[in-house]
Amino acid sequence: MIYKCRQELHDASLILTCNSCFAALLTCVTMLIMTSSNLFTGFLIYNMKFCMAWGLFYDIFECVIYYSYCLQAFYRLCRIVFYTKKFLTSFSLHFILIICQWLLVLAFLIPPVFINWYDHLPTAKYCLIPYTSVIAEIYHILVLYLIPLICIGTIYIWITIFMRRTTRPSTLIIAVIRRQRNQRDLTVVKRIIMLIGVLIVLRFPTIIFMIYAIIVGYTYPLTYGIVGVITSACLIFIGFATIYTTPPLRKRIHNYFVHRNNRIQAEPIPKKQIHVPITMTDNVKTAQKPNKR
Looking at the 3D structure of the chain, how many domains does it have? Predict the structure, then answer.
């Protein structure tokens, strides 16, 4: 999808949205495999290194979702505040930023593997960072939630202050066009904050179960199952909301699934219809022969 967007559209905003959807899709796939392992034979715990690596993949993909919204907010910041510097909104720059974002998340989350924070959960058949590990969970919440939220909140405040302090432009037409564009970008940033807020609100059960595990000393037996269901519902909502609030992506998906089924396929013309014009011309010729006489 990203390659196709780069080849056909060259739209930075669309590739950033595709990045968020791609991370959400990978998160759902890893969650599906972890849930399958928990429900059936527990195939993930046959090899502990593979089990810990799969838990790492889950955290990486989920973390990328949050940081992808940071990139979207940064893109809107460049369009509003630094609108004179066109290279900041170029496709190539944000394509590079997406790669850097994935590398940054890897740099954040790979060290816990070497510290042995990932372990087989006592109430599940897969590996994650246990809620009873206080230092590991604080680090996890800081990297996964707080840093992206602070970045997006700072960008939103920056854009709001800039729009209120904007000086008078040279002409009225430029002022109207720029104001309309800024309002659209500010609306997009508000939607991003709303989506991040939904993710954080739906993560409150995780924090509650973590506090419960720290106080009691063990996790509730259905903790990870409840958290998995809430996370799945959250990702489904985020996916549909992202597609709905992105008109180019919504149009492309609509054209792919709807117009593809409504294409008119050419059917072969029956032989009887082919001979009809020939007989008509023959009749015309026979009708014209008496006139020649």
Answer: 1
Are the C-beta atoms of 182 and 215 separated by less than 8 Å? no
Evaluate whether residue 272 is within a structural domain.
no
Distance CA 101, CA 148 (A): 12
CA distances for 49 relative to 25, 104, 124, 137, angstroms:
24, 23, 16, 20
Instruction: Give the whole-angstrom CA distance, residue 265 versus residue 270.
Output: 15
**Percent helix / strand / coil, the chain, rounded to 5:** 80, 0, 20
Half-sphere exposure for 182 (CA within 13 Å, toward CB): 20
Collapsing DSSP states into helix, strand and coil, what is residue 161?
Answer: helix
Q: What whole-number distance in Å separates Cα of residue 36 and Cα of residue 174?
A: 57
Report pTM.
0.74
CATH number, residue 21: 1.20.1070.10
Whole-angstrom distance, CA of residue 175 vs CA of residue 167: 10
- Gap between the Cα atoms of 161 and 243, Å rounded: 29
Residue 180 lies in a domain: yes
Along the 293 residues of the chain, how does pLDDT read in single tens digits?
444 444 444 678 888 888 988 888 898 889 889 888 888 888 998 989 999 999 999 999 989 988 998 898 899 888 888 878 888 889 899 999 999 999 999 999 999 988 889 988 888 889 988 888 888 888 988 888 888 888 888 888 888 788 777 655 556 666 667 677 677 777 777 777 777 777 677 677 777 887 887 788 777 777 777 877 777 777 777 777 777 766 666 777 777 666 666 654 444 444 444 444 444 444 444 444 444 43
159 and 80 Cβ atoms separated by less than 8 Å: yes
Give CA separation, 98 vs 69, 92, 102, in Å: 11, 10, 6
